[in-house]
Amino acid sequence: MIEVLLFAQLQEEAGTDRITVDFTTVTVKQLKEQLRNEYAFQQIEESMIAVNESYALDDDIIKAGDTVAIIPPVSGG
After folding, report:
1. Do 27 and 9 contact (CB within 8 A), yes or no?
2. Which helix or strand (DSSP H or E) is residue 20 part of?
3. Partners of 54 in beta bridges
4. Are the CB atoms for 14 and 6 separated by under 8 Å?
5. pLDDT for 57-72, tens place per residue?
6. DSSP 17
């Protein structure tokens, strides 16, 4: 299981601040695709991804037991 922490708009869209996904290993890109399909997240592609508190790229591998944070872009003025 991989714990996914959600912030800002993604948290509102999911109705929760965290979800778990049942993968042994998955790339960041595959995880984003899965979450986009399952939760219809609008800003998943523009979001920063951190795995175990380190920013990750699309090709990075996430393993069971890892914690992923998804941080959407911030807007404001």
Report:
1. no
2. strand 18-21
3. 51
4. yes
5. 999 999 999 999 999 9
6. S
What pLDDT shows up at residue 61? 98
Phi, psi for 29 (deg, rounded to 5): -60, -45
3 state SS of 66: coil
* CA–CA distance, 27 with 77 (Å, rounded to integer): 34
Rounded CA separation 67/60 (Å): 13
Structure tokens at 20: 């778990």
The structure's pTM equals 0.91
Q: Is the pLDDT of residue 77 over 60?
A: no
β-pairing, 54-55 vs 67-71, is unpaired
CB-CB contact of 26 with 1 (8 Å): no
Residue 19 CA to residue 14 CA, distance in Å, equals 9
27: left (phi over 0), alpha (psi -120 to 50) or beta: beta
